[in-house]
Protein 1
Amino acid sequence: MQWSVPRRAAVSMTAAAIAGAAVIPGARAPAVPRQLGRPRGHSVCAFTEQDFRGLLAHIRLPRLLIEPPIESAANHSHVTWCFYESPAYGGLHVVLEPGRGTARFPYPVRSARPAGKG
């Protein structure tokens, strides 16, 4: 038994598929998808690649070891955070004030904590 779609229905389905795949000219995607929102509390959006790309992790508590390391971050919290090049808050560090971010850390970040914690 053969199944067939009437020609008019097939044309309508094709037109609907094309219309659904249309791209609006000039529309730009946000750097961070809107559905991720801004985490509450002491949260930072951390990314495994530069320019806010790669795997996303929400850092809410101090981290002695970040694995895999992060390469960029956005501080959406209300406190200053420090990002270290070595585990256990060792080596060089970068400070991000609330509402600030960096698309490229000078080194892969291996640990992080709020400023003034230790």
Protein 2
Amino acid sequence: MLELLGLAWSAWKLSVKRVGPLGAAVVALLVVVGFVFLRDYLVENYPRLGEAVDDAV
């Protein structure tokens, strides 16, 4: 859970100057949802790559 919070914070900080605070919140939400779906897909179809993604974050 904390890894997703860290990912959301990083995405928000990187995009806040470009799209404003509200837009950055939307970008952060999309990044977290996309990461969760990608991680689940990789774990299901490519287990070693999914484990590597989990270890990287």
Protein 3
Amino acid sequence: MAIRLELHTEDPEEIAFIQRYWATDEDGAFIEKVNELVPFREITQGGAIAAFVRQRCTAYDQNQPCKTCGAPIEISSRSEFRKQPPVRAFAMCKACQQAALALRQEQEIAAAAELAVRLAEYAEALNDQTCDYRALGDDLALVVLALEAAITPRLTTGTFSVKDCEALCAGDAGPYVQRLLEAGVLMERPLEAEAGTYYLKDDSLWIRRAQAVYALAPDPNLGSANSVLEVVSNRELTDGHALAQLWLDYAVQDVMHYFMSECHTYNHELSAEELLDIQSSFRSALGTYSVAQLWSVAWRVVRDAASLANRTYYNREKAAATLPGKVRRHMEKVDREAAPLRAWARREEHPAGTLGMVFWELFEIDENTTGADALLMFSRIGLQAEVPACEAALLAPATELMQAAVAENRVPEILLEFAALIGGGVSVPEAIRSIRENHPALGGK
């Protein structure tokens, strides 16, 4: 018999009944059907037999050896019995299961202890992290201001996750948080994250970024977080190139968020490579056109693809694959024919985000500002930054000269001479130097 029985009753009738239940022929088929075994005592339904037998007997299927120790596997009903031994053992007996469970629990406890040690070390190392906010780039400063508006007051008083930053921009705020993290503006708070955020893999500490908890890194020279925000808010913006790139990053994300919502409406699924191609086309177009104008392009090409999907020999997948080419060709046609582009209004469910608000407050640019105007404005910021430096170099000598001229009552004479030198092509510093040399009473040597 392929089934070994371990009886827990001494009642002869029960033993006979159990043996009838498990009895098989030479081919491994059960000799009696379950419904032929009833009635037996109080059992009148076949469905109650298996429970009755389990209480009075433990059955082992000798055709199912344990993959660990080779002992037969315990079975609880006929449906678990195998007529023939398997080619390869795949199950474990209860003893081996319990041993494996104990070992797994032991390993989990050891891994948890190791993770706790590594996390404590990692958190201690992060405690030394600081940030010099006076040296922060202009683009990162704007992101800090936008983040503060998105999660106030948590940026200065507590911790937050990427999910908390949804109001920062249209679409995914993760890339902006990552920028601040890489620049040292934000620091991780591993001991405050939920369980499972950090884990060990290949003896290294890994993190699930979506669950990570962050805080604003301190500035050792500024003290409180409010002082940090005051410095960031009151800084003079001089890096027009960095600001222009941040605007393009924000603008293309604004366009792509609208584009993806349209694709979702028509069930267009695109690969990562196709999305990068489309994003590149939109970013290039944002050097000329506004975000609102490119929304109209997104609207048109997505609907063209949806219409194409209904044609013979096409489907949704093939139609979606045409979108990168449609965007590129549409923009080429607009550029070539100088055709006007309509501007779409911002949808209520598609807010500009706090970063968009910062751009408006500081530069009065938004989705309706053409790329040409925005980039021209940012280019002037770089030029304006050079003027104060030149003026600072001239401030002291020019002030000294005019004060001496006033003291000598010779202001008109000095101004006329200065104008003549400038008119003759002499630079301002050279003109000041020449006047002082020609008039020793004014401080010349």
Protein 4
Amino acid sequence: MTDLFISMGHDISVKNLGSGSFRCRELASDEVAKVIAETRASGGEISGYYKFDSDLSDDCMKQFDELLLAFEAITGTRLTRNDFMSEPDEDGDQLPNLNYMTAVDETCRMLVVGYFFQFNPPSNMSPKAWKESFMVARDHMEFNLIEQVL
């Protein structure tokens, strides 16, 4: 059983991956579904990290939901917010995995997802309209799988 940690965005440091040697290979979008399906079928856990704002603003959550929809459109695999949240505490509250990254080792691989924004310029360029004109592109993402070399 191997867990899969999904980092939404390229902003990770390879120095924090763990100890040992690592292999990074680019995956085609149709290969991503297979990696996730294999992880789930073997009982492995899927968790992830996304750059949430510390206050979990509505804008941040909207962008994250767009990102999950784009991921599903491109890979054919659904992820949920729960995959990016911590385990519930004693009060049942869940927090996002803020500044969190698990170690890549013999029990965990990491999928790094690079995503892009498309710009749909509105006719009215007010600051609010400008901000709302950027959406996560649903036609292209980059996928890199990082594994420990044993």
